From TrEMBL:
One Gene Ontology MF term: metal ion binding
A single BP term in Gene Ontology: DNA repair
Catalytic residues, chain numbering: Y108, D152, H255
Protein name, entry field: Exodeoxyribonuclease III
UniProt organism field: Actinokineospora globicatena
Organism classification: Bacteria, Bacillati, Actinomycetota, Actinomycetes, Pseudonocardiales
Sequence similarity: Belongs to the DNA repair enzymes AP/ExoA family.
Cofactor(s) needed for function: Mg(2+); Mn(2+)
Gene name, Swiss-Prot/TrEMBL: xthA
Amino acid sequence: MLTVSTVNVNGLRAAAKKGFLEWLAATRADVVCLQEVRSPVDELPAEVSEGWHTVHAESTLLRGRNGVAIYSRSEPEATRVGFGVPEFEASGRYVEAWFPNLVVASVYLPSGEVGTLRQDQKERFMATFLPYLVELRAKAATDGREVLVCGDWNIAHQEIDLKAWKANRKNAGFTPGERAWMTRVFDEAGYRDVLRVLHPDGPGPYTWWSYRGKAFDNDSGWRIDLHVSTPRLATRAHTITVERPETYDARWTDHAPVTATYDWPPAD
């Protein structure tokens, strides 16, 4: 069995002081994908990755922003930072690790803001990332590897993926254009939303709750942290769980880890 977790840590140094270290010590994950690490690698305390092989993509344009990483129990055969688009190469939004039979990536899409330059940036990211997903799938298939892209996609695909969907129809993360793009990831690029393969019905489970108001207590959240895989790997998924804390005080990020188990590598 292969166990993979993904979580937006909302600042790794801060998360380490609030419970991330305890979670990492207890997890049975073979691979952990992190988003919004923020801290430059040379400023991270050693204990946040002790005992793990790590590869980081930090933002060198906006120091202390964004940042993604992959932690693994075994050393990858190869790694890659960025997906070949100059605008995003140094933005700390994409990293991948190649293992036998499998490529795992950690992605952090821009959050966007409708009517601003931030939304324009998000749309440029989506426009260039989709063809890369197609390219990655084809490249991995040449030597028999499947692909798993984990991370904070910052898009709720369907109405069942956020609590207050009616109030958010014109907001970033749930615009018609963003939702249509997610459909293209699944239909045109041929990937699968692993949670929806195992649990097609909603609502939720949600993976992010605003710190404002009573969003967490009322479970008024969004499902934006995803395992997105090639079809064969999706059929090998046994379980997928959102590790939602029992209480508000137990949170060490405004997201929750999403952990899946896969029957991998295949016996055939």
